[in-house]
Every structure is written in structure tokens, then in C-alpha cells.
Design goal:
Pfam family, one: Flagellin_N
Largest sheet: 5 strands, antiparallel
Subcellular location: Bacterial flagellum; Secreted
Distance between the termini: 24 Å
Shape: rod-shaped
Keywords: Bacterial flagellum, Cell projection, Cilium, Flagellum, Secreted
InterPro entries: Flagell_FlgL, Flagellin, Flagellin_N
Helix content: 40-55%
Radius of gyration: 41 Å
Main location: other
Strand order of the largest sheet: 5-12-7-8-9
Oligomer: single chain
Number of helices: 7
């Protein structure tokens, strides 16, 4: 076979270029620290690396969402801690207000103290986060959720009942907030029963209770209304829920209806009434409870009816404050449980993050020991190709003539 000089030069050059390409490729891998520098280096590994990188990015998003959720829950938990302390202080003031030796001036001083607690709670209910968003407004977080009426001064909730959810893991959406209605205008499902005297009662009738005495009674727990009547002879009767059969009333009598017992003292006036119902059905409102307490403490005691109104209001408010405190503590416990869950999800996310990084490293990272050995081998190959090309290029018959 006849081999031309051109063929020898082309083959030598091709060998040098190939060796130089392999040499530079290994050098690029060492410089970048990656085995797969270009997708063509290992198409299958490059494809899997993209998928793993996407999973790693998604896991980072979940981690960021958990950080945001933790910050929001921690802020709210801190506020609710202050709310619980304020309610406890209000309950202490209520107990002091029940002291029969206090004068009107003493009760007015207590009313001022309760007003301070009221304003504190109002401020906490309208607390904001670091970005100016209101914590307890639900989805309506750009304006104060609790607003005072310009005329009556009563506080009303203007937020909604929405709960902001955060995707903190692939299969977990976690509430990052609780709306103000749930916190300040709701009671726990286990809350008991309340008795409330009508604001227009003119007698000096007071009550104690209600207490559960017969859970097996028909219609147990259903609310009822006691309506009192006084005839021309001064005889006092009462009826239940507008019943047509009046029942004689005596001072100190205990009335049992639907498994609930209410102890009554004093003398009612004609038309007086008392309503007994579940705490959940009584339109609970922490601010209204404090407003009622402030109003009754600011009212001078001039008649027996005024004294009865004070005692009945304090009795009802005492139960309402207990229910409000239980509700706030329940919400705080829920937040604590969510914070604990975030810790668990963080641990799981960290482990998942390590697994993704290890998989990604196995796919594209370089084994430097093997790469350096190959680098030296490619260098020797390139030098050999260059030496062979030089030697072959010197071959000529003219050198032998």
C-alpha cells in the first residue's frame, strides 16, 4: 500500500489534535471541579442533575416559607402572651370589684384600671408585623382589624375570618396566622354556660350559676329564659321560655331547667328576666365584656337595683373572662404545636437537602485523584504524539542519498 507524505502529515496532525483535546478537557474538569462540564460529557448524568437541582431549589423554597411562618407565629405568640396577662389582670380587678366594702370612688378607680387594660388589649389586637401588616385581620391585613365606633366607643371587628396558609412542605400547608375573631370573639368548644340579667331589670334579683346538675335531662344544655311577673297582690311568679304556667318564686330559690341549675336571690320587679345559654351562643366578645365592666364600675350605687346590676354583671363577666382566657391559651397552644412541627419539618428538610446535594455530587462532581492521573496520562500522550509527528516529518529518501 502506498502512503503519501500528505497522509502521514494529516494522520500526525489529527493524532495531536485529538490528544490535545482530551488533555484540555481533563484540564477543564480539574479547573471547574466538575466531571460533567458540558451535557455532552454525560447526557444521562446531566439530565438527572437538572432534576435534582430543581428539587434542591424547591426544598429551599419550603425552607424559606418555614422561616417566614416561624417569624409570623412567634410574633403572634408573643402578642397573645401579653393578651393572656392582660385578661388575668382584668380578672384580678374584677375580684377586687366584688368587695362589698368598696365605695363608688374605689370602683371608679378600678374602672380606670380596667380601661388601661382595655386599651392595652385594643393595641395588641391591632398589632402589626415588621412590614406594617396587621397580624389578626385575616386576609384584610392592610387596615386595623378592630375599630372603635365613633359614637358608642364600642370595639368592632372589621377583618375577615380568613387564615393565611403557607406551603411549608410538599404535603403540608400550615396556617401562619389566626384571625382576630377567633382570638377575641370566640370561646373554646368546652366553654360552659352563662346567665345574663336583662339590662332593664328594675328589681334587685341576683343569680349564682348556672351549674350543670343533670346531664341526662331532656334537652340538656339548651338555653332558656326566665321571665318574672308580679301581680297586684305582690305575689311573684316566673315562667320558662314564655310558658303559660307560672311558677311561684321565693327568695333564695334554685331553678332547675334542662339539667342546669340557677340559684336566685332578691326580689325581681315585674317584667325582669334572666337569659341562660351556652357561652358559644352568647355572642362572645372580650372587648364588650370589659366595656360592661367599666360601665357598671363607673355607675354609682344608689339603689338595690344598681347593686344587683353590679353583682350580676361581675358574675357574668367573671365567666366570660375565664372563657376568653381559656380561648387565648388554646390558640397559643395551637401556635406552639405549629412551631414544634416546623422544627420537625426543618430537620426533615435538612436531611433531604443533604441527600439532594450528595446525589448531585455523585452525578457531576469530579474525583480529583482519578482526574489528576488521567491529566498526567493525557499529557504524556500529547507529548508522544508530538514527538512521533516530529520524527515522521523528518523521514525523507533525500537524507539517505
Amino acid at each position: 500500500m502506498r502512503i503519501s507524505t500528505v497522509t502521514m502529515f494529516e494522520q500526525g496532525l489529527s493524532s495531536m489534535v485529538r490528544q490535545q483535546s482530551e488533555y484540555l478537557k481533563v484540564g477543564q474538569q480539574i479547573a471547574s471541579g466538575k466531571r460533567v462540564v458540558n451535557p455532552s460529557d454525560d447526557p444521562q448524568a446531566a439530565s438527572r442533575a437538572i432534576s435534582v437541582s430543581q428539587s434542591l431549589a424547591v426544598n429551599k423554597q419550603y425552607d424559606d416559607a418555614r422561616v417566614s411562618t416561624r417569624n409570623a407565629l412567634s410574633q403572634q405568640e408573643s402578642v397573645l402572651s401579653s393578651v393572656a396577662n392582660a385578661i388575668a389582670s382584668a380578672k384580678t380587678g374584677l375580684v377586687r370589684a366584688g368587695n362589698g366594702t368598696l365605695s363608688d370612688a374605689d370602683r371608679s378607680s378600678l374602672a380606670i384600671e380596667i380601661k388601661g387594660i382595655y386599651e392595652t388589649l385594643f393595641g395588641q389586637a391591632n398589632a402589626t408585623d415588621g412590614g406594617g401588616h396587621y397580624l389578626f385581620g385575616g386576609y384584610q391585613d392592610s387596615s386595623p382589624p378592630f375599630v372603635k365606633d365613633d359614637i358608642s366607643g364600642a370595639v368592632a371587628y372589621h377583618g375577615d375570618e380568613g387564615v393565611v396558609l403557607q406551603q411549608v412542605d410538599a404535603s403540608r400547608q400550615m396556617p401562619s396566622s389566626d384571625n382576630g375573631k377567633r382570638i377575641f370573639q370566640t370561646v373554646h368548644a368546652s366553654a360552659g354556660y352563662l346567665a345574663q340579667a336583662d339590662a332593664d331589670n328594675a328589681g334587685n334579683l341576683t343569680f349564682t350559676g348556672p351549674n350543670v346538675t343533670d346531664s341526662s335531662a331532656i334537652d340538656f344544655g339548651s338555653g332558656f329564659t326566665l321571665d318574672f311577673a308580679v301581680d297586684a297582690d305582690g305575689d311573684i311568679t316566673y315562667s320558662t321560655d314564655g310558658g303559660i304556667t307560672p311558677i311561684p318564686y321565693t327568695d333564695g330559690q334554685s331553678v332547675a331547667v334542662n339539667g342546669l341549675t340557677l340559684t336566685l336571690e332578691g326580689t325581681p320587679a315585674d317584667g325582669d328576666s334572666i337569659v341562660v345559654e351556652k357561652a358559644q351562643d352568647a355572642d362572645p366578645n372580650l372587648f364588650r365584656t370589659l366595656e360592661n365592666m367599666i360601665a357598671v364600675l363607673d355607675t354609682p350605687i344608689e339603689t338595690d337595683a344598681d347593686l344587683a346590676r353590679l353583682q350580676n354583671t361581675l358574675s357574668t363577666s367573671s365567666r366570660e373572662l375565664d372563657n376568653a382566657l381559656d380561648n387565648v391559651l388554646t390558640v397559643r397552644a395551637s401556635m406552639g404545636a405549629r412551631l414544634n412541627e416546623l422544627d420537625v419539618l426543618d430537620a426533615v428538610g435538612d436531611n433531604r437537602n443533604l441527600n439532594y446535594k450528595q446525589t448531585l455530587s455523585d452525578l457531576v462532581d469530579l474525583d480529583f485523584n482519578a482526574a489528576i492521573s488521567e491529566y498526567r496520562l493525557r499529557e504524556v500522550g500529547l507529548q508522544a504524539a508530538q514527538k512521533a509527528f516530529v520524527d515522521i516529518s523528518k523521514l525523507s529518501l533525500f537524507n539517505l542519498i
